[in-house]
Amino acid sequence: MKKLVFGLALCLASISAWAQQSLSGKVVDASTGEALVGASVWTAKVGRGTVTDAQGEFTLTKLPSGLVELSVSFLGFETVNQTVSLPYSGDLIFKLVAKEFLSEEFVVSATRASSHTPTTFTNVDKSEIAKRNLGQDIPILLQYTPSVVSYSDAGAGVGYTGLRIRGSDQTRINATVNGIPMNDAESHGVFWVNMPDFASSVDNVQIQRGVGTSTNGAATFGASLNFQTDTRQDDPYAQIDNSFGSFNTWRHTVKAGTGLLNERFAVDARLSKITSDGYVDRAFSDLSSWFVSGGYYGENSVIKLIAFSGKEQTYQSWWGLPESKLEDDRTWNYYTYDNETDNYQQDHYQFIYTGKVGTNWKTNLALHYTYGRGYYEQYREDDDFASYGLPPVTIGDETIESTDIIRRRWLDNDFFGFVGSVNYLSDNGQLDLVLGGGANRYDGDHFGEIIWARIAGDTEIRDRYYDNNAVKDDRNIYAKATYEVKPGLNLFGDLQVRGIDYSFAGVNDDQRIVDGQESYTFFNPKFGFSYESGGNTWYASYAVANREPTRSDFTDNPITEVPRPERLNNIEAGLRARAGRLSYNANFYYMDYKDQLILTGQINDVGAYIRENVASSYRAGIELDAAFQLNKAWTLGGNIALSQNKIKEFTEYVDDYSTEEFQQEAFTYTDTDIAFSPNVVGSAIIEWKPVKSLSLNLLNKYVGKQYLDNTANDGRALDAFFTSDFRISYAAQPRFFKGLELNLMVNNIFNQMYEPNGYTFSYFVPGEGASGKDLVTENFYYPQAGTNFLLGLSLKF
To answer: Per the database record, which ranges form the TonB-dependent receptor plug domain (predicted)?
Structure first.
């Protein structure tokens, strides 16, 4: 018994000793002495680890007494291994030496703004994205950045989502991944639902507002999103992310990497699955994706092969919610057919080379290929045979001209090409010159199939009732340079020439022949300056962007009346500043549009609504954002954008069904507001860290009133809304894990009923009015969920 008691006492003493020891230190760059934020500190045998904070400091707790082996690593630096005896007294500082590897940042640097560039931008790094990434899509994760308004068709941030920046929608926002264009070549849009959980493979993103710098792909006509995927990890790792939440939302993600093999090679991979029932009735999402990257890292070159894919099935909620159901049935869905779904898969392949030539030159070349294919299925009640190019069906003495039909509308496309750049930096750093460009081709098939008909007539399953093809070639070259005239004063110039050839042929979905060809050549100059002094950077710039019409502008308009291309003249001027614990940005912008294309209500010869050019319109505003660290526990941040968004003269066309012969009535407005352009957008974030491992955040968003069309009619508007989200993040260091993170996000904690998106249309019917007709306006909304939650657990090995 004495031996047993003595043994238990020894065990308890051992456990007590294990739990009581702690170790603190700091990790810095050996050459500069600057703190390294996010460096990994790991005790392999004990199985505990952490990362350094904003001051480069770390603390490991519950360590055993005696000798402990520490491994300290940071991307781009040599790993340091050191044995420390505990308890330890004194200052423990790890000085890491930079590796002689070429930085991967150059992959995206040619299309990005730097601290010297006189344009308006926001950088969001991996840590910020990870805090919010519990399965919702990119637009929702970026909603607290300046001038951003995001929305979700299904109401919960999963499935079809979108965002607007300064009131510009996704067809006017250029998106690139590793410098490679992502916008659909025909619609100019980006469909984030085709890239589920892409945020888990993003290292950082730069959001440029306004025209910004020259980039590849669709013209930047309001903003650009420049993504860089995961960069090299020097140490092997594995990570499992799981989350669940309201509306039966689940996310499962597995990531792993080899670390640097033989000091030269690395492979990283991710597999993800996201499912959700959606807030709107039946608006489910079933999303899967994968990402694989393999790289060679030499002293003077980097070669990477990247492949990623996304596959989605979503039940359609595109119709929106009628105004009559807004108060008592917000989850109502117009669609009831059990397979009213959208189905699409998109595969991306990228080959990227970055090389250093001598001491002054760097080169970058990327080849890419994207294959997309999919359809959406619809049940159509009592559709005319003529709408499908079919003759009426005669049964006995009865001639039947319509029937119930199930159809699929397909898109099958290939997008491929190359982008590249060469960078020269003078020995004294005075001249920074970039020459770049790219050439890309889109080849897309559009066709529709009848897969079922109640009365089939002379048809076969999968008969194509329309079929057309489009080929679009997009080429650009650019030269941009920053020249330091004197210390602190930099001049910037950026010249781009972009050429487009677009041809299309075949039968459109409305049974019209749509054969045509258009070519454009655009010159897009940009000039500006920046001045740096005392931690402040003042800047001003003038930039031009030209943009071709979209596919529907060509196919819906008579070929003889193709809309003119749009032009944007953009002025940006502002200040970027940092003083102690306060950092802030302030800028003014003026975006002057010539021939902007907008919906006016006018129809073509077969009744399809078309977009028309308006001669003059503009956006002007002031954007302010700031962050202030009160102390180690409290941080305040926020942004606000105040703007005016006007069309100088706008003519609306309203359908008139009050007479036997259909016609349209025109109404002209002057100095009217641009649709979906709130005059006020702001957010405020409060973070409290009572202890190092625990973070509590209150995130608030305000969006002012938005008009659903360009008439500035209060009866066709989205109400202003203010929402608040609450996030709790806890990081622990359990044995045998490099890290454990628990995140709880409670969205819309005050249960606000709001709608950030919608649409409207009006028409005249016979009525009691003085003219014998009444105006009917129908508004449709996309309601967002009330209070809901997402809970996530991340394990790092």
So the answer is: 116-222
For the domain made up of 18-96, give the CATH fold: Immunoglobulin-like (2.60.40)
Written as one letter, the residue type at 650 is: F
Neighbours of 494 (CB within 10 A): 24
Task: Encode pLDDT of 35-65 as tens digits.
Answer: 888 888 888 677 777 888 878 888 888 788 8
Partners of 380 in the β-ladder: 405
Q: How far apart, in whole angstroms, are the C-alpha atoms of residue 464 and residue 578?
A: 61
What residue has token string 């898109």?
A: 411
For residue 589, give both structure tokens: 């912008």
By C-alpha distance, which of 85, 80, 70 is closest to 29?
A: 80
Q: Is 201 helix (H, G, I), strand (E, B) or coil?
A: helix
Distance in angstroms (rounded) separating the CA atoms of residues 329 and 485 = 63
- As a whole number of angstroms, the distance between CA 133 and CA 270 comes to 15
Domain covering 237-796 assigned CATH 1.10.10.10 in the classification: no
CA distance 4 to 107: 65
CA 51, CA 126: separation in Å to the nearest integer? Answer: 14
Question: Whole-angstrom Cα distance, residue 8 to residue 19?
Answer: 16
Higher pLDDT, residue 91 or 120: 120
Residues ≥6 apart with Cβ < 8 Å to 275:
248, 249, 250, 284, 285, 286, 287
CA nearest to 130, candidates 731, 596, 537, 659: 731
Name the phi and psi angles at 552, rounded to 5.
Answer: -65, -30
pLDDT tens by residue, 584-631 = 999 999 999 999 998 887 766 555 667 888 999 999 999 999 999 999
The distance from CA 416 to its chain's CA centroid, rounded to whole angstroms, is 21
**Left (φ > 0), alpha (ψ -120 to 50) or beta: where does 348 sit?**
beta
Q: What are the percentages of helix, strand and coil residues in the chain, rounded to 5?
A: 10, 60, 30
Give the count of alpha carbons within 13 A of 185, CB side only: 29
Q: Where are the beta strands (DSSP E) in 359-488?
A: 361-384, 393-395, 398-400, 402-425, 431-453, 463-486
Segment among 27-31, 367-371, 409-413 with least mean pLDDT: 27-31
Residue with tokens 């308009």: 557
CA proximity to 608, closest of 509, 738, 520: 509
Rounded Cα distance between 580 and 509, Å, is 61
Kindly tell me the burial class for residue 516, based on how many C-beta atoms sit within 10 Å of its own C-beta (0-12, 13-18, 19 or more).
middle
* Residue 727, φ and ψ in degrees, nearest 5: -125, 135
Token pair recorded at residue 204:
């950082």
**C-alpha to C-alpha distance for 621 and 166, rounded to whole angstroms:** 9
* Contact by Cβ (8 Å): 474, 497: no
| Cβ(221)–Cβ(172) below 8 Å | yes
Write the DSSP string, 691-747.
ETTEEEEEEEEEE--EESSTT--TTSEEPPEEEEEEEEEEEE--TT-SEEEEEEEEE
The pTM for the full model equals 0.88
In the chain, what are the domain boundaries?
18-96, 237-796
Give the chain's end-to-end CA distance (angstroms, integer).
42
Check if the beta carbon of residue 367 is closer than 8 Å to that of residue 351.
yes
Q: What is the DSSP letter of 248?
A: G
Tell me which H or E stretch contains 27: strand 21-29
Half-sphere exposure (Cβ direction) of 654: Cα atoms closer than 13 Å: 22
